Amino acid sequence: MTKMFLRWIVLFLILLHGGSETLCQEIVSASSVPVVLVMRSGTSENGTITPEWKEAIRHWHDEEALAAMVAIPKRRSEPEIRWARHIGERVGHWRGMIDSLRIPFTGVAPPEIVTILLGNQGGNDAFVLAPSTICFDLSRLQEEYGNATEPVNGPRIDRFFAHEFTHVMHKAWAKKNNLQLRTPLGTALWECLTEGLGNYRSLSEKWVNKRGELTLHARDVLARLEPIFVERLSALPHASEKDIPNLMQGLSMGPFDRKWGALTVALWLAQEAAGDDRNLQKWVEAGPAGVLTLADKYLSEELKGKILRGR
Questions:
Q1: Per residue in 245-274, pLDDT tens?
Q2: CA 200 to CA 134: how far, in whole Å?
Q3: 7-24, pLDDT tens digit by residue?
Q4: pLDDT band at residue 306, thresholds of 50, 70 and 90?
Q5: Domain range list for the chain
Q6: Could you tell me the sign of the dihedral formed by the alpha carbons of 239, 244, 250, 251, in that order?
């Protein structure tokens, strides 16, 4: 029995047991490795969160809060239903994006099945449940970006998928390379790299023009973020356990234009790519330490000296 035949048996079983959500699947080949996208609901028919969604949002809530969400059903609202439908309609386009999203990750096989999990409470707008589940919180999407049918939300949700699938690939890279993070600085650099590449996928034309060049707005924001990047990373090697969370705050969470680690690295990577994602392969292979090499290349001499002294 061939591997391909076994894969189709798996797909049939998913279709048989996947509930009311539509199975979205396609074999997409790059280096002959197939990727299947499966869409599943994180909410049962009566509005109760599923065990899978509970696990997905556990990072943000204690057991008491999780138990309360399980105990009080929350059916999808009409706007949330529209977002779920919108995501389902975009999955076909996402299939065609996978080859290009894999380009920076040479020699890394993605998971054969990637689940698109849709919940409606307790999560972030888009996030990954390791190793291969991309989650969307429909309520957050509606709250933060308005109606799914707004024209800007087609490209926006595509960028979200690209961002999260990049995280899936980076997790596969870390596993393949047996990545070990032993210091707070190493952890911060890894987050700068992974979220930097993810946020590179999130950049709209507000940040990078059609020629692959940073816009004036992007350069202004970068000039504001780079000193924070240097200040925080330089302090981490000498920080107490009490101070580390404060130093890490805002690295990749919060308003997009204030992500001092993720957006800084994303804009450096955009300049490295210059419209060709093959130029990013060396930065993926460099791992966390590559972030400091990028900093050496793009920081001013004054800032570069500060971060070097902080190592």
A1: 999 999 999 999 999 999 999 999 999 999
A2: 17
A3: 544 454 444 445 444 444
A4: confident
A5: 19-175, 181-309
A6: positive
Cβ neighbour number for residue 34 with a 10 Å cutoff = 18
Reply yes or no: is the peptide bond before residue 131 cis, omega within 30 of 0: yes
The pTM of this model reads 0.87
Nearest CA-CA partner of 83 in 38, 119, 52, 44:
119
**How far, CA to CA in Å, does 223 sit from each of 156, 220, 271?**
25, 5, 14
Q: Which amino acid is located at 182 in the chain?
A: R
Dihedral pair phi/psi, residue 116, rounded to 5°: -100, 105
The answer for residues whose C-beta is within 8 angstroms of residue 202's C-beta and 6 or more apart is 159, 160, 162, 163, 256, 266
Q: Note the pLDDT tens digit of each residue in 196-249.
A: 999 999 999 999 998 889 999 999 999 999 999 999 999 999 999 999 999 999
Q: How far apart are CA 118 and CA 126, in angstroms?
A: 10
Asked if residue 143 has pLDDT above 50, the reply is yes
Tokens 């973020």 found at: 225
| Angstrom distance (rounded) from CA 139 to CA 38 | 21
Read off the tokens for 274: 């210059």
What is the CA angle 252-255-260, rounded to 5?
Answer: 45
Complete edge-to-edge strand list for the sheet that includes strand 36-41: 36-41, 113-119, 133-137, 126-129
